[in-house]
Specification:
By secondary structure, the chain is mainly alpha-helical. Helix content is about 50%, strand content about 5%. The mean pLDDT is about 90. It folds into 2 domains: about 1-105, no CATH class; about 160-235, no CATH class. The chain is elongated.
């Protein structure tokens, strides 16, 4: 899970979303959840724009904004419709998720703190690294805050298959960086460019960002090795590992 920038939607789409929200408000409160769900599932005007914009925000090749592994196939409502139907067409309430994270793990679960604030991390509103630390040796997340702990649990971020995938992603990134360095030395600019593109399109973008952060930390050479630290500190590599603009 990495920090993502949410761009504004076109004004006409936002206007239609506001109109749809007004229609939900007009429904008696006890029927709003069902009405909102039907309106969302049958809508063909704003959903394509929402889906397309989320895809441009997502890391790698339209990866899930929670696990970072699978393709983001679903538009997830961060705060579920069953809890707050008035946010059905709220642009700030939409994330791109894979069907496993969305339907099997997160579902309608939305834990809150004692003051009512969400315990789940919204990667478009905050930096997940403030709440989570990714162990590059094990591929598992370590919670730094109660919000980090809740997000790991609700989204199943430490599923064994995801942890193994993150370890493999680190190895793949390191191999690509070494090959990129050789290609650059040999003057093969096309291959070098292709290798950096491969790095930037890797699943588990959080691994790339954790590596970039680790390279700037004290004792980086002991964690990553001197060669990888040198490569991670080069401007071209830092740009390739950056979050989506």
């Amino acid at each position: 899970m990495i920090s993502l920038r949410r761009p504004p939607l076109p004004a006409d789409v936002l206007a239609r979303m506001s109109t749809l929200t007004d229609r939900i408000v007009a429904v008696p409160e006890q029927r709003r959840s069902g009405s909102a769900r039907r309106m969302w599932s049958t809508n063909r005007t704003v959903r394509p724009t929402i889906r397309q914009t989320l895809a441009t925000m997502a890391p790698g090749l339209e990866r899930c904004m929670y696990c970072g592994d699978n393709q983001g196939s679903d538009v997830d409502h961060f705060e579920p419709l069953s809890r707050n139907p008035l946010r059905t067409f709220d642009w700030l309430n939409h994330l791109l998720a894979c069907s496993i994270c969305n339907s099997h793990f997160k579902r309608d679960r939305f834990p809150t703190a004692a003051d009512g604030t969400p315990l789940l991390i919204d990667p478009t509103a905050e930096d997940p690294f403030d709440h989570l630390r990714l162990s590059l040796s094990t591929g598992a997340y370590v919670a730094l805050t109660p919000r980090g702990a809740a997000t790991i649990e609700i989204c199943g971020l430490n599923r064994p298959i995801l942890s193994r995938g993150r370890v493999a992603a680190r190895s793949a990134v390191e191999r690509c960086l070494r090959m990129w360095d050789r290609a650059r030395t040999l003057g093969d600019d096309q291959l070098a460019e292709e290798l950096l593109a491969t790095v930037s399109e890797q699943p588990f973008a959080a691994v790339c960002q954790a590596m970039a952060r680790a390279a700037r930390a004290p004792g980086a050479a002991e964690v990553l090795g001197p060669e990888i630290v040198r490569l991670l500190r080069l401007p071209a590599v830092r740009r390739a590992l950056s979050p989506p603009a």
